């Protein structure tokens, strides 16, 4: 078994030599996939599959798989990042930096997470881990999920808290589905976007959504940049209706450091690193290695979720 680290510009020329491809920051489009004559499986090194043309892969007889975040530490890492962004905005991270530079003590005046209402938009593996970590802060947790009768794919095998038989009562104070998102947004001090991005969810946090949020509420996105409508976010930052924005993902990546959104003091952006931790990378690397050995031995794949 041979493992190669191929430069991005060389992928189209050599992809026909490989049986497994692990994608990180390369777009596997129809043209590239048509050259992958020996390819059996494509995996994304992460939980998203936006970089893979799944329909084209299916047409060429290639399986595409996700690495579930709960079992690798990715979901836990993303949940911790969400809390970092929340606390950074509440305690005014950017303004504190200015106070240090100006040798000022005792300012700015921050705010507590304690007592806040947090709306987790998308209660999958990341949402579950986030709720578990928010509980000790004494917050009220609202959450929406497409179907509360179905567990996250790998929750029974992950370090996520037990949610068998729909038993979310210890983690969520109020739960709803897609029809409840505006109602929940209107009740929350903090909204955390944890949804997968697809044709149904792209731009879901739009002008209507942000308009019903409480004045001064905080918006966090650790999922995919396209879930937020850029113009709506910018408009509500300008008006002061949106009290803070914390994003690990952006509409275009890498994000333009001169973008107007970054001019506001209550904005924190991180460079798509929520899942980039030693724990998460070790977990995902083990899954990739195990799957490669399974393919080599002709055994069924375990530890991954085939999507086609």
Task: Describe the structure in your own words.
With 308 residues, the chain is of the alpha/beta class. The chain has two domains: 94 residues, NAD(P)-binding Rossmann-like Domain (Rossmann fold); 178 residues, NAD(P)-binding Rossmann-like Domain (Rossmann fold, 3-Layer(aba) Sandwich). It contains ten helices and eleven strands. The strands form two sheets. The protein has a seven-stranded parallel sheet with strand order 6-5-4-7-8-9-10, sandwiched between helices. The protein has a four-stranded mixed sheet with strand order 1-2-3-11. Strand 7, helix 8 and strand 8 form a beta-alpha-beta unit. It is globular and about 60 Å long. 38% of the residues are buried.
Q: Radius of gyration over alpha carbons?
A: 21 Å
Mean pLDDT figure: 89
Give a quick account of the main beta sheet: strands, pairing sense, barrel closure.
Answer: 7 strands, parallel
**Uncertain ranges:** 151-166
Number of domains: 2
| CATH architecture identity of the largest domain | 3-Layer(aba) Sandwich
Choose one word for the global shape.
Answer: globular
What do we call the CATH homologous superfamily of the largest domain?
NAD(P)-binding Rossmann-like Domain
- The CATH top-level class label of the largest domain: Alpha Beta
Describe the strand arrangement of the main beta sheet, using strand numbers. Answer: 6-5-4-7-8-9-10
Structural class: alpha/beta
